[in-house]
Amino acid sequence: MADKRDLEEAETTVFSAQTKKRKADLETKNGKGNEKDESSDECENVLRTFETSAVLSESAREKNIFVHGKMWGQDAVVILEKTPIQRDVLSQMFSESSLKLQMKNDIYSTFQLQAPAHLNEIKATLVFPATQKHIQKYQRQESFLLEETAQDYLSITLPFIQEQRFSVQWVYNILEKKAESERIVFEDPDPETGFVLLPDFKWNQKQVDDLYLIAISHIRDIKSLRDLSSEHLPLLKNILHKGQAAILDTFGVPRSKLRVYLHYQPSYFHLHVHFTRLGFEAPGCGVERAHLLQDVLQNIQSHARFYQTRTLYCPLRADDSLLQKYRDAGKI
Ligand code: M7G
Protein backbone atom coordinates (compact mmCIF):
# COMPACT_ATOMS: atom_id res chain seq x y z
CA MET A 1 0.00 0.00 0.00
CA ALA A 2 1.42 3.39 -0.89
CA ASP A 3 1.69 6.27 1.51
CA LYS A 4 0.21 9.67 0.66
CA ARG A 5 3.54 11.01 -0.59
CA ASP A 6 3.78 8.22 -3.18
CA LEU A 7 0.31 9.00 -4.42
CA GLU A 8 1.01 12.71 -4.64
CA GLU A 9 4.20 11.97 -6.52
CA ALA A 10 2.32 9.72 -8.87
CA GLU A 11 0.01 12.60 -9.71
CA THR A 12 2.57 15.34 -9.93
CA THR A 13 5.50 13.61 -11.58
CA VAL A 14 3.53 12.45 -14.53
CA PHE A 15 1.61 15.66 -15.04
CA SER A 16 4.47 17.99 -14.22
CA ALA A 17 5.88 19.39 -17.38
CA GLN A 18 8.99 19.91 -19.25
CA THR A 19 8.26 23.49 -20.12
CA LYS A 20 11.78 24.79 -19.80
CA LYS A 21 12.45 23.14 -23.08
CA ARG A 22 9.96 25.35 -24.88
CA LYS A 23 12.69 27.70 -26.04
CA ALA A 24 14.94 24.81 -27.05
CA ASP A 25 12.05 23.21 -28.91
CA LEU A 26 11.47 26.39 -30.76
CA GLU A 27 15.09 26.42 -31.83
CA THR A 28 14.79 22.82 -32.87
CA LYS A 29 11.72 23.70 -34.90
CA ASN A 30 13.67 26.49 -36.55
CA GLY A 31 16.49 24.08 -37.29
CA LYS A 32 18.91 25.68 -34.84
CA GLY A 33 19.03 23.13 -32.06
CA ASN A 34 20.35 19.65 -32.35
CA GLU A 35 20.66 18.61 -28.73
CA LYS A 36 18.81 15.74 -27.20
CA ASP A 37 16.13 16.74 -24.71
CA GLU A 38 17.73 16.96 -21.30
CA SER A 39 15.21 19.26 -19.68
CA SER A 40 12.64 16.59 -18.70
CA ASP A 41 13.43 15.52 -15.20
CA GLU A 42 13.88 11.84 -14.66
CA CYS A 43 11.39 10.60 -12.07
CA GLU A 44 10.67 7.37 -10.30
CA ASN A 45 8.76 4.86 -12.42
CA VAL A 46 5.37 5.05 -10.70
CA LEU A 47 3.94 2.91 -13.50
CA ARG A 48 5.86 -0.08 -12.20
CA THR A 49 2.97 -0.73 -9.81
CA PHE A 50 0.35 -0.51 -12.59
CA GLU A 51 -1.54 -3.78 -13.02
CA THR A 52 -3.45 -3.97 -16.29
CA SER A 53 -7.14 -4.87 -16.05
CA ALA A 54 -8.32 -4.14 -19.59
CA VAL A 55 -7.44 -2.36 -22.82
CA LEU A 56 -10.05 0.38 -23.24
CA SER A 57 -9.10 1.22 -26.82
CA GLU A 58 -6.14 1.05 -29.16
CA SER A 59 -5.29 2.34 -32.57
CA ALA A 60 -2.56 1.03 -34.84
CA ARG A 61 -3.00 4.13 -37.02
CA GLU A 62 -2.70 6.62 -34.17
CA LYS A 63 -0.15 4.40 -32.43
CA ASN A 64 -1.71 4.64 -29.02
CA ILE A 65 -3.30 2.41 -26.43
CA PHE A 66 -5.61 3.32 -23.53
CA VAL A 67 -5.33 0.92 -20.62
CA HIS A 68 -7.39 0.51 -17.46
CA GLY A 69 -5.64 -0.92 -14.45
CA LYS A 70 -5.02 -0.70 -10.74
CA MET A 71 -2.36 1.07 -8.71
CA TRP A 72 -2.23 0.59 -4.98
CA GLY A 73 -5.73 -0.91 -5.12
CA GLN A 74 -7.27 2.09 -6.92
CA ASP A 75 -8.40 2.52 -10.52
CA ALA A 76 -5.99 4.14 -12.95
CA VAL A 77 -5.90 4.86 -16.66
CA VAL A 78 -2.66 4.95 -18.62
CA ILE A 79 -2.40 6.24 -22.17
CA LEU A 80 0.70 5.22 -24.13
CA GLU A 81 1.38 6.97 -27.39
CA LYS A 82 4.27 6.85 -29.85
CA THR A 83 5.45 10.40 -30.50
CA PRO A 84 6.11 11.92 -33.94
CA ILE A 85 9.64 11.69 -35.32
CA GLN A 86 11.33 15.06 -35.24
CA ARG A 87 13.27 16.34 -38.23
CA ASP A 88 16.30 17.44 -36.27
CA VAL A 89 17.05 13.91 -35.03
CA LEU A 90 17.13 12.36 -38.51
CA SER A 91 20.90 12.34 -38.89
CA GLN A 92 21.30 10.76 -35.42
CA MET A 93 18.54 8.29 -36.23
CA PHE A 94 20.32 7.20 -39.42
CA SER A 95 23.80 7.03 -37.95
CA GLU A 96 23.16 5.67 -34.45
CA SER A 97 20.47 3.02 -35.01
CA SER A 98 20.91 -0.66 -35.72
CA LEU A 99 19.07 -2.29 -38.62
CA LYS A 100 17.59 -5.72 -39.21
CA LEU A 101 16.59 -6.54 -42.75
CA GLN A 102 13.00 -7.76 -43.02
CA MET A 103 12.73 -8.15 -46.76
CA LYS A 104 14.36 -7.13 -50.00
CA ASN A 105 12.74 -7.29 -53.41
CA ASP A 106 14.13 -5.50 -56.47
CA ILE A 107 14.47 -1.83 -55.42
CA TYR A 108 12.36 -2.31 -52.25
CA SER A 109 13.66 -3.15 -48.75
CA THR A 110 12.08 -2.95 -45.30
CA PHE A 111 13.97 -2.99 -42.01
CA GLN A 112 13.38 -3.11 -38.33
CA LEU A 113 15.24 -0.02 -37.14
CA GLN A 114 16.31 -0.02 -33.50
CA ALA A 115 16.81 3.65 -32.56
CA PRO A 116 18.83 4.76 -29.52
CA ALA A 117 16.63 4.99 -26.42
CA HIS A 118 16.43 8.79 -26.34
CA LEU A 119 15.05 8.84 -29.89
CA ASN A 120 12.50 6.18 -29.12
CA GLU A 121 10.28 7.95 -26.63
CA ILE A 122 6.72 7.06 -25.71
CA LYS A 123 4.42 9.66 -24.19
CA ALA A 124 2.66 8.28 -21.13
CA THR A 125 -0.33 9.95 -19.48
CA LEU A 126 -1.59 8.72 -16.13
CA VAL A 127 -5.00 9.46 -14.61
CA PHE A 128 -4.85 8.38 -11.01
CA PRO A 129 -7.03 7.79 -9.16
CA ALA A 130 -9.40 7.45 -12.11
CA THR A 131 -13.16 7.62 -11.70
CA GLN A 132 -15.64 5.41 -13.52
CA LYS A 133 -16.29 8.37 -15.83
CA HIS A 134 -12.62 8.52 -16.83
CA ILE A 135 -12.67 4.81 -17.63
CA GLN A 136 -15.79 5.34 -19.75
CA LYS A 137 -14.31 8.43 -21.45
CA TYR A 138 -11.37 6.47 -22.80
CA GLN A 139 -13.30 3.36 -23.78
CA ARG A 140 -14.04 3.15 -27.48
CA GLN A 141 -17.78 3.55 -27.90
CA GLU A 142 -20.36 4.16 -30.53
CA SER A 143 -21.70 7.71 -30.39
CA PHE A 144 -25.03 9.32 -31.16
CA LEU A 145 -25.83 12.86 -32.25
CA LEU A 146 -27.81 14.72 -29.61
CA GLU A 147 -30.21 17.44 -30.73
CA GLU A 148 -30.45 19.73 -27.72
CA THR A 149 -33.03 22.52 -27.88
CA ALA A 150 -32.73 25.51 -25.56
CA GLN A 151 -35.54 24.02 -23.45
CA ASP A 152 -33.88 20.59 -23.36
CA TYR A 153 -30.71 22.24 -22.10
CA LEU A 154 -32.55 23.80 -19.17
CA SER A 155 -34.70 20.82 -18.26
CA ILE A 156 -32.40 17.85 -18.98
CA THR A 157 -28.75 18.80 -19.63
CA LEU A 158 -28.25 21.53 -17.02
CA PRO A 159 -29.54 19.55 -14.01
CA PHE A 160 -27.46 16.60 -15.20
CA ILE A 161 -24.18 18.50 -15.59
CA GLN A 162 -24.66 20.15 -12.23
CA GLU A 163 -24.46 16.80 -10.49
CA GLN A 164 -22.66 14.42 -12.85
CA ARG A 165 -19.76 15.99 -14.68
CA PHE A 166 -15.99 15.67 -14.20
CA SER A 167 -14.32 17.61 -11.42
CA VAL A 168 -12.59 20.80 -12.63
CA GLN A 169 -10.10 20.79 -9.76
CA TRP A 170 -7.24 20.51 -12.27
CA VAL A 171 -8.46 23.77 -13.85
CA TYR A 172 -8.52 25.58 -10.50
CA ASN A 173 -5.02 24.22 -9.75
CA ILE A 174 -3.80 25.87 -12.96
CA LEU A 175 -5.55 29.18 -12.24
CA GLU A 176 -4.22 29.20 -8.67
CA LYS A 177 -0.69 28.18 -9.77
CA LYS A 178 -0.85 24.97 -7.76
CA ALA A 179 -0.06 22.88 -10.83
CA GLU A 180 1.57 23.35 -14.23
CA SER A 181 2.59 26.94 -13.40
CA GLU A 182 5.95 26.45 -15.13
CA ARG A 183 4.10 25.51 -18.32
CA ILE A 184 2.13 28.74 -18.62
CA VAL A 185 2.82 30.37 -21.98
CA PHE A 186 0.81 33.54 -21.37
CA GLU A 187 -1.46 34.99 -18.73
CA ASP A 188 -3.79 37.97 -18.67
CA PRO A 189 -4.66 38.30 -14.97
CA ASP A 190 -7.78 40.44 -15.44
CA PRO A 191 -10.52 38.77 -13.34
CA GLU A 192 -13.23 39.43 -15.97
CA THR A 193 -11.48 39.16 -19.33
CA GLY A 194 -8.28 37.38 -18.32
CA PHE A 195 -7.13 33.83 -18.97
CA VAL A 196 -4.20 31.43 -18.72
CA LEU A 197 -2.77 29.91 -21.91
CA LEU A 198 -0.79 26.68 -21.56
CA PRO A 199 -0.04 23.48 -23.47
CA ASP A 200 -2.83 20.95 -23.45
CA PHE A 201 -1.62 17.76 -21.81
CA LYS A 202 -2.15 15.95 -25.11
CA TRP A 203 0.79 17.93 -26.63
CA ASN A 204 4.39 16.99 -25.85
CA GLN A 205 5.64 20.37 -27.17
CA LYS A 206 8.38 18.79 -29.22
CA GLN A 207 7.08 19.79 -32.64
CA VAL A 208 4.60 22.41 -33.73
CA ASP A 209 2.87 20.14 -36.28
CA ASP A 210 0.54 18.89 -33.54
CA LEU A 211 0.53 22.13 -31.53
CA TYR A 212 -2.25 22.09 -28.92
CA LEU A 213 -2.79 24.71 -26.24
CA ILE A 214 -5.77 25.62 -24.10
CA ALA A 215 -6.85 29.01 -22.80
CA ILE A 216 -8.66 28.81 -19.46
CA SER A 217 -10.73 31.80 -18.33
CA HIS A 218 -10.15 33.28 -14.89
CA ILE A 219 -13.87 33.80 -14.54
CA ARG A 220 -15.33 30.63 -13.04
CA ASP A 221 -19.05 30.76 -13.66
CA ILE A 222 -19.14 30.13 -17.42
CA LYS A 223 -19.80 26.43 -17.87
CA SER A 224 -19.83 26.18 -21.65
CA LEU A 225 -20.85 27.71 -24.96
CA ARG A 226 -24.45 27.65 -23.69
CA ASP A 227 -23.66 30.38 -21.13
CA LEU A 228 -21.96 32.75 -23.57
CA SER A 229 -23.74 35.97 -24.49
CA SER A 230 -22.89 39.55 -25.53
CA GLU A 231 -21.51 40.41 -22.09
CA HIS A 232 -18.71 37.93 -22.74
CA LEU A 233 -17.59 39.44 -26.05
CA PRO A 234 -14.64 41.30 -24.44
CA LEU A 235 -13.47 38.06 -22.80
CA LEU A 236 -13.79 36.02 -25.99
CA LYS A 237 -12.05 38.64 -28.15
CA ASN A 238 -9.30 38.89 -25.58
CA ILE A 239 -8.73 35.13 -25.58
CA LEU A 240 -8.70 35.02 -29.38
CA HIS A 241 -6.39 37.95 -30.02
CA LYS A 242 -3.97 37.60 -27.10
CA GLY A 243 -3.91 33.82 -27.48
CA GLN A 244 -3.02 34.09 -31.17
CA ALA A 245 -0.36 36.73 -30.44
CA ALA A 246 1.21 34.65 -27.65
CA ILE A 247 1.36 31.55 -29.87
CA LEU A 248 2.98 33.53 -32.69
CA ASP A 249 5.46 34.98 -30.25
CA THR A 250 6.34 31.72 -28.48
CA PHE A 251 6.01 29.07 -31.16
CA GLY A 252 6.18 31.08 -34.38
CA VAL A 253 2.79 29.82 -35.58
CA PRO A 254 0.69 32.60 -37.19
CA ARG A 255 -3.06 32.92 -36.70
CA SER A 256 -3.64 31.75 -40.29
CA LYS A 257 -2.34 28.34 -39.14
CA LEU A 258 -4.48 28.06 -36.02
CA ARG A 259 -7.85 26.41 -35.39
CA VAL A 260 -9.32 28.13 -32.33
CA TYR A 261 -12.49 26.56 -30.97
CA LEU A 262 -14.73 25.50 -28.12
CA HIS A 263 -16.17 22.06 -27.63
CA TYR A 264 -19.86 21.55 -27.16
CA GLN A 265 -20.33 19.66 -25.02
CA PRO A 266 -16.99 19.88 -23.27
CA SER A 267 -15.83 17.24 -20.81
CA TYR A 268 -14.92 19.95 -18.28
CA PHE A 269 -17.53 22.61 -17.63
CA HIS A 270 -15.32 25.65 -17.05
CA LEU A 271 -14.82 27.97 -20.02
CA HIS A 272 -11.74 27.00 -22.03
CA VAL A 273 -10.74 27.45 -25.64
CA HIS A 274 -8.70 25.00 -27.74
CA PHE A 275 -5.87 26.27 -29.99
CA THR A 276 -4.65 23.59 -32.40
CA ARG A 277 -2.59 23.76 -35.53
CA LEU A 278 -4.55 23.74 -38.77
CA GLY A 279 -3.81 20.50 -40.57
CA PHE A 280 -3.46 18.53 -37.35
CA GLU A 281 -6.54 16.37 -36.88
CA ALA A 282 -6.87 16.90 -33.16
CA PRO A 283 -9.34 14.57 -31.42
CA GLY A 284 -12.69 16.40 -31.17
CA CYS A 285 -12.06 18.93 -33.95
CA GLY A 286 -14.91 17.60 -36.12
CA VAL A 287 -17.93 19.78 -36.97
CA GLU A 288 -20.19 17.83 -34.61
CA ARG A 289 -18.26 19.07 -31.57
CA ALA A 290 -15.96 22.00 -32.40
CA HIS A 291 -17.26 25.58 -32.67
CA LEU A 292 -14.78 28.04 -34.19
CA LEU A 293 -14.29 30.94 -31.80
CA GLN A 294 -14.48 33.43 -34.69
CA ASP A 295 -17.94 32.01 -35.60
CA VAL A 296 -19.02 32.11 -31.97
CA LEU A 297 -18.08 35.81 -31.83
CA GLN A 298 -20.04 36.59 -34.98
CA ASN A 299 -23.08 34.63 -33.83
CA ILE A 300 -23.20 36.50 -30.52
CA GLN A 301 -22.60 39.82 -32.27
CA SER A 302 -25.61 39.20 -34.50
CA HIS A 303 -27.78 37.87 -31.66
CA ALA A 304 -26.79 38.60 -28.06
CA ARG A 305 -28.48 35.42 -26.75
CA PHE A 306 -27.69 33.18 -29.70
CA TYR A 307 -26.43 30.28 -27.58
CA GLN A 308 -29.31 30.47 -25.12
CA THR A 309 -31.90 30.17 -27.88
CA ARG A 310 -30.51 27.79 -30.54
CA THR A 311 -30.69 24.05 -30.83
CA LEU A 312 -27.16 22.72 -30.46
CA TYR A 313 -25.97 19.35 -31.75
CA CYS A 314 -23.29 17.27 -30.16
CA PRO A 315 -22.11 13.66 -30.04
CA LEU A 316 -22.76 11.59 -26.92
CA ARG A 317 -21.20 8.23 -26.27
CA ALA A 318 -23.43 5.19 -25.97
CA ASP A 319 -22.62 4.77 -22.27
CA ASP A 320 -23.14 8.45 -21.37
CA SER A 321 -25.87 8.71 -18.75
CA LEU A 322 -27.01 11.97 -20.34
CA LEU A 323 -27.91 9.99 -23.46
CA GLN A 324 -30.04 7.75 -21.27
CA LYS A 325 -31.79 10.84 -19.80
CA TYR A 326 -32.67 11.97 -23.34
CA ARG A 327 -33.87 8.45 -24.16
CA ASP A 328 -36.00 8.40 -21.00
CA ALA A 329 -37.50 11.73 -22.07
CA GLY A 330 -38.35 10.20 -25.47
CA LYS A 331 -36.04 12.62 -27.28
CA ILE A 332 -33.84 10.01 -28.99
P1 M7G B 1 -12.83 19.45 -23.19
O1 M7G B 1 -13.43 20.04 -24.41
O2 M7G B 1 -13.47 19.84 -21.88
O3 M7G B 1 -12.84 17.89 -23.22
O4 M7G B 1 -11.31 19.87 -23.21
P2 M7G B 1 -12.09 16.76 -24.00
O5 M7G B 1 -11.00 16.27 -23.05
O6 M7G B 1 -13.15 15.70 -24.16
O7 M7G B 1 -11.59 17.33 -25.27
C1 M7G B 1 -10.48 19.79 -22.10
C2 M7G B 1 -9.04 19.86 -22.62
O8 M7G B 1 -8.19 19.95 -21.51
C3 M7G B 1 -8.65 18.62 -23.40
O9 M7G B 1 -8.06 18.98 -24.63
C4 M7G B 1 -7.69 17.88 -22.45
O10 M7G B 1 -6.67 17.17 -23.15
C5 M7G B 1 -7.12 19.02 -21.63
N1 M7G B 1 -6.74 18.61 -20.27
C6 M7G B 1 -7.42 17.79 -19.46
N2 M7G B 1 -6.78 17.69 -18.27
C7 M7G B 1 -7.25 16.90 -17.14
C8 M7G B 1 -5.67 18.49 -18.32
C9 M7G B 1 -4.64 18.80 -17.39
O11 M7G B 1 -4.59 18.36 -16.24
N3 M7G B 1 -3.70 19.69 -17.83
C10 M7G B 1 -3.72 20.22 -19.10
N4 M7G B 1 -2.75 21.05 -19.45
N5 M7G B 1 -4.68 19.91 -20.00
C11 M7G B 1 -5.65 19.07 -19.61
Structural class: alpha+beta
CATH level 4 superfamily of the domain at 141-328: HIT-like
CATH class of the domain at 141-328: Alpha Beta
CATH topology of the domain at 141-328: HIT family, subunit A
Low-confidence stretches: 1-21, 23-39
- Overall mean pLDDT: 89
The fraction of residues in strands falls at 25-35%
SSE order: HHEEEHEEEHEHHEEEHEEEHHEH
Describe this structure in words.
This protein has helices spanning 4-15, 21-29, 90-96, 132-138, 150-164, 169-175, 233-251, 293-302, 306-309, 321-328, and strands spanning 51-59, 64-71, 74-82, 98-105, 108-114, 122-127, 143-148, 186-188, 195-199, 212-217, 258-263, 272-277, 290-292, 312-317. It is of the alpha+beta class and 332 residues long. Among the domains are: 84-120, 2-Layer Sandwich (Phosphorylase Kinase, domain 1), CATH 3.30.200.40; 141-328, 2-Layer Sandwich (HIT family, subunit A), CATH 3.30.428.10. The strands form 4 sheets. A 6-stranded antiparallel sheet has the order 8-9-10-12-11-13. A 4-stranded antiparallel sheet has the order 1-2-3-6. The longest helix has 19 residues, at 233-251. Residues 1-21 and 23-39 have low confidence and may be disordered. The structure holds 7N-methyl-8-hydroguanosine-5'-diphosphate. 7N-methyl-8-hydroguanosine-5'-diphosphate binds next to loops. 7N-methyl-8-hydroguanosine-5'-diphosphate binds at residues 15, 170, 180, 198, 200-202, 214, 263, 266-268, 284.
